[in-house]
Each structure stands twice: as C-alpha cells, then as structure tokens.
Amino acid sequence: MKFQRLKDLREDKDLKQSDIAKMLGIQQTVYSRYERGVQNIPLDYLIALADFYRTSTDYILGRTNETKPYPKAMKL
C-alpha cells in the first residue's frame, strides 16, 4: 500500500524525507520505503506521524478523508 498522504503531508510542511526520518530515529531510506509502500510502517511510527501532522492514523491510511484528529481518549 502506497502512502501518498504521508508524502503530501510532508511536502505541505516543506520537509524532506530525511527530516521525518531523523524525527523518527530511522534512516531516510527506510522512511522512503514507508511512503512508497515497500515496507510496512510500525504502529508506533504511524502514531508518531499522526501526532506530528495533527491528524488521525485513519487519514494517513486512507480510511477517512477527515484530516482533523480524533479527540484524545480518557486514560483509565
């Protein structure tokens, strides 16, 4: 699955793949594989990206067109 929305979100902020890779603590080539859909994104990175871009994981995954994040869940 190609993640065009990840690329779009990154480019909207005028960031390079290397900028996002550095934030995640991974190599740029690994992040590039995530955007191209060659490698699955680990859940913790997906959540970090959704938080960084202030959107939902469902938006990144193409499950919704709503860009606003969901309200935070109450911690028990």
- The helix count comes to 5
Low-confidence stretches: none
Mean pLDDT: 92
Strand-residue proportion: under 5%
The CATH class name reads Mainly Alpha
How many distinct beta strands? Answer: 0
Spell the H/E element sequence.
HHHHH
Instruction: Give the quaternary arrangement of the chains.
Output: single chain
Distance between the termini: 34 Å
The largest β sheet comes out as: none
Query: Percent of residues in helical segments?
Result: 55-70%
Tell me the overall shape. Answer: globular
Which structural class fits the helix and strand makeup? Answer: mainly alpha
The gyration radius over C-alpha positions equals: 12 Å
CATH superfamily: lambda repressor-like DNA-binding domains
Describe the structure.
With 76 residues, this protein is mainly alpha-helical. It has a single domain, classed as lambda repressor-like DNA-binding domains (434 Repressor (Amino-terminal Domain)). Helix content is 55%, strand content 0%. It has helices spanning 4-12, 17-24, 28-36, 43-53, 57-61. It is globular and about 35 Å long. The N and C termini lie far apart (34 Å).
Key terms:
76 residues; mainly alpha; 434 Repressor (Amino-terminal Domain); 5 helices; 55% helix
